[in-house]
Structures are given as C-alpha cells and as structure tokens.
Amino acid sequence: MRLTRFADNALRCLIYLARRPDETVRVGEVADGMAMSEDHLLKVVQRLTELGYVRTVRGRNGGVRLAVPAASISVADVVRTTEENFALVPCFEPRRDACPIAWSCALPRALDEALAAFFTSLDRYTVADLVPGGPDDDAHGRRSPRRLTHHAGQGPAPDR
C-alpha cells in the first residue's frame, strides 16, 4: 500500500498542528515547516476542514488549528477519507474491463485481506500517537506499542 502525497500531507499537517495544540498557526508557517507550497497545503487544509479535523481562523492573527484533540483523530480514518482509491492493482478499478482470469484468480481475496490488515494496524493509532516527544516515547521519538491509544468499540484493551 502506498499513500498518495495528498494523504501523506494531510497526516503530516495534522501532526504539525498537534505539536502546537493551543495555537493558531499561519498557513505559510505550516507550509514552510512541511517544505511544500502554500497552494497545495491550502487544498489539504480545505479537505481537513471539511472533515472537521481542523478549523481556519480569519484575520490578521489567522491561520489554522486543530478543531478536535489529536487523540480523537484516528490515523486510519484520515487515510480512508483522504485517499482517492484503494484498488491495489489495476484490474480492481471499476472502470477497467473484467480480468480475463477472474474465474480462477484468488488475488482479490489476498489483497483485500492485506488492505484490511493495513487498516487494522492504522486503527490502533491516533494523531497524538504520532507526535514525537511525548512521555511514552523512546529516545528516538517512537511511541511504545504497548502505550498506543485503545479506541472504544475495539473490544477490551489488550493486556501487555
């Protein structure tokens, strides 16, 4: 699975803003910090605003900020809502002609399982889990897997 640049930038924008949760940050500052153009970042911010993850503030001291706590933003949900297409191979595209060996091919089942596993893994993380420097991080800024946020609806939290 490879994320589009748009989904990657959406996640990175949320991480950037999560590092400054109580601030409104100028779009130009975020763009500079992410080494990307303001025009592209504005498209990302517009989508994140539509999804309710960020809000924009107009005026002289305006900019962008998180609209909800980083701990409530599921990484899997961000990817699901910012990726355009999850067809892992061209023959899965709805606009393509039928696969000539579809009657004897188990590839769709295998790739569907792989995609499900990908999202199962991402479902364990929130944007807050991706912000380095938290109290549960190791010396390299990596969050310990046993400290990951457990989301309601996923059954009891695992004992580790």
What would you note in describing this structure?
By secondary structure, the protein is mainly α. It has helices at residues 5-18, 27-34, 38-50, 75-82, 107-122, and strands at 54-57, 63-66. A two-stranded antiparallel ribbon has the order 1-2. The longest helix is centred in the last third of the chain and has 16 residues, at 107-122. The radius of gyration is 18 Å and the shape is elongated.
Question: Mind sketching the topology for me?
Answer:
Blueprint: H1 5-18, H2 27-34, H3 38-50, E1 54-57, E2 63-66, H4 75-82, H5 107-122
Antiparallel strand pairs: 1-2
Helix pairs in contact: 1-3, 1-4
Structural class: mainly alpha
Quantity of strands, as a count: 2
Any idea what the shape is?
A: elongated
Averaged pLDDT? 82
Strands of the biggest beta sheet: in what spatial order?
1-2
Main beta-sheet strand count, sense and barrel state: 2 strands, antiparallel
**Computed CA radius of gyration, to the nearest angstrom:** 18 Å
* Helix amount: 25-40%
Termini separation comes to 29 Å
Number of alpha- plus pi-helical segments: 5
H/E series, N to C? HHHEEHH
Short description:
The protein is mainly alpha-helical. The chain has five helices and two strands. It has helices at residues 5-18, 27-34, 38-50, 75-82, 107-122, and strands spanning 54-57, 63-66.
Spell out the key features of this protein.
160 residues, mainly alpha, two-stranded antiparallel sheet, 5 helices, 2 strands, disordered C terminus
